[in-house]
Amino acid sequence: TDPGGGTNELPVIDDLFGSPNPVDQGDLLDLIAFASDQDGYVAAVEFVYDKNGSGQPDNGDSSFLDTNLAGGWTWDNVDTTEWGINDHLIFARAQDNDGEWGSYRNTLITVKKPNGLPTIGELVANPNPVHYGKLLTLTANDVHDTDGDPTITEVDFYLDNGSGQWNIGDNPIGSANTPSDGLRADHIIVV
After folding, report:
1. What residues contact residue 130 under an 8 Å CB cut-off, 6+ apart?
2. Is this prediction's pTM over 0.70?
3. Residue 19: other Cβ atoms inside 10 A
4. N or C: less crowded end of the chain, CB within 10 Å?
5. Which residues, in sequence order, are CB contacts of 118 under 8 Å at separation 6+?
6. C-alpha–C-alpha distance, residues 137 and 99, integer Å
7. Strand 73-79 to strand 118-126: parallel, antiparallel, or no bridges (unpaired)?
8. CA 148 – CA 118 distance, rounded (Å)
9. Cα–Cα distance between 137 and 160 in angstroms, integer?
10. Cis link prior to 22 (omega < 30° from 0)?
11. 129: cis peptide before it, omega within 30°?
12. Taking CA 142 as the corner, what is the angle to CA 141 and CA 145, rounded to the nearest 5 degrees?
């Protein structure tokens, strides 16, 4: 009951979402809830991940209780490594300053397969050595997308700044926007 002798109004979850959503499998996820209480204040928010897929909060699930009133209601840095590629149900409910729990609200979090980075099996310079003022053909061979996407849309070529590996300080010298067969890209420059 409230101090005026009336019935206690239960707290509610006004909004519940994940960031980012969708999330790449293995990335960290933040769960955020906004809650309110009409006749007091929200003292805690419980988050529940429907780990067992039952469609409701129960003992087979993972949960987190946020009792920190500062900074909003969150379950931060949730590891999605063990989450399958699919939609996952998340629940949240609020507890008021009288110790009473409101109803659960739910939302879906989509876990997707991470985008694999393309690889270049070999980079060939021809001729090698090249003489000053002459043409040099750079060929990237065995260009593949590691997650199976057959379309490589561009291969960029850079002049190393002396570090021996690519970094932000390397100078772009050109690109092949239409790799000839998806497995090879050529770029010709004058040295």
Report:
1. 136, 191
2. no
3. 12
4. N
5. 143, 144, 145, 146, 152
6. 73
7. unpaired
8. 9
9. 16
10. yes
11. yes
12. 130
Nearest C-alpha neighbor of 78 from the set 15, 17, 18: 18
pLDDT in tens, 143-169: 877 776 667 778 888 888 888 888 888
Separation between Cα atoms, residue 122 and residue 31, nearest integer Å: 43
Distance CA 131, CA 134 (A): 6
Interval 10-67: pLDDT, tens? 999 999 999 999 999 999 999 999 999 999 999 999 999 999 999 999 998 999 999 9
How far apart CA 150 and CA 131 sit, in angstroms, is 36
Q: Cα(103)–Cα(56) distance, rounded to whole angstroms?
A: 12
Identify residue 27 by its one-letter amino acid code: D
Long-range pairs for 177-183 at CB < 8 Å and ≥24 separation? Answer: 177/153, 179/140, 179/143, 179/152, 179/154, 179/155, 182/143, 182/150, 182/151, 182/152, 183/141, 183/142, 183/143, 183/144
